[in-house]
Amino acid sequence: MKQKTEYIKERIASLGLVVSEEQAVQFYQYYELLTEWNRFMNLTGITEFEEVVQKHFVDSLSLVWMEDLKSVDNLIDVGTGAGFPGIPLKIAFPHLKVVLLDSLQKRITFLNEVIHKTGLTGIDAVHGRAEDYARPGKLRESFNLCVSRAVARLDVLGEYCLPYVKIGGAFIAYKSGEAEQEIKDARSAVFQLGGKTEDCKNFLLPDSDIRRSLVKIKKVNGCPKKYPRKSGTAVKNPIK
């Protein structure tokens, strides 16, 4: 395992981020659980060790190129799936209080197993739809930061995610490839949801030709109570 943990530390260091041996072991435990559970449920199409490290772990942690996570207290990962980016961020930044939100109970069971086996604390996996937990009295406007690697247009993600963010906080979307046109198309929706696009960083994952973008939307005003709308509406009828 020592060779594997050294590889993990080396790849994460390509982001300018240092993790301890204990943290590298947690990443390796996560990898083992991911591939073990993936044999009987669909968590990821990426299972080779080096690919998981680069395309899941390093990709998740690329957030450090956009945000100083040492100054963030808590975050929610909306549509977390197999735990990306929330679990890698929690392992690398243990002070973070993290909520992993996903609509599929089987994935929540997997995430709870990862949390238990890696010994992580201050992290909760919650079963539910983004539209439901963003209602007043639940998790609405509870977080400094919301992140999502979910595959959806930015106007749709904004409706799911911005209601969770406190005014002054931010929502950061992980996107593949260039995101400028998507940002332009979502401008009106982002404004109506109380946000303002602050930054977009385009980059290649270290030592690869994989193009990624991080889009940061600042929460500058309260989100109208009618958002998010009921399940499925944001996809079928995006905010114009």
Assign an overall shape. globular
* Contiguous runs where pLDDT drops below 50 for at least 5 residues: none
Oligomeric status: single chain
Determine and state the CATH class of one domain.
Alpha Beta
Radius of gyration from the alpha-carbon trace, in angstroms: 17 Å
* Overall pLDDT metric: 96
Separate helix tally: 10
The total beta strand count reads 7
User: How many angstroms separate the termini?
Assistant: 51 Å
CATH architecture of one domain: 3-Layer(aba) Sandwich
Question: SSE layout and pairings?
Answer:
Blueprint (H helix, E strand, L loop, with lengths): L1 H12 L7 H17 L11 H13 L12 E5 L7 H7 L4 E6 L2 H14 L4 E5 L2 H4 L9 E6 L5 H8 L3 E12 L3 H6 L1 H6 L2 E10 L6 E9 L13 H4 L4
Parallel strand pairs: 1-2, 1-4, 2-3, 4-5
Antiparallel strand pairs: 5-7, 6-7
Helix pairs in contact: 1-2, 2-5, 3-4
